[in-house]
Amino acid sequence: MTVGQQRAWDEHWGALGNEVKALPDGPVDFTGWFGREAPVLLEIGSGMGETTAQLAAAAPDLNYLAVEVYKPGLAQLLLRAENLGVRNLRALRGDAVDLLTDHVPPGSLAGARIFFPDPWPKKKHHKRRLVQPEFVALLSSRLVPGGVLHLATDWENYAEQMMEVLSAEPTLRNLHADEPGGWAPRPEWRPVTKFEQRAVEEDRVSHDIVFERIA
Question: Of 10, 81, 171, 174, which is most buried, counting CB atoms within 10 Å of its CB?
Answer without folding.
Answer: 81
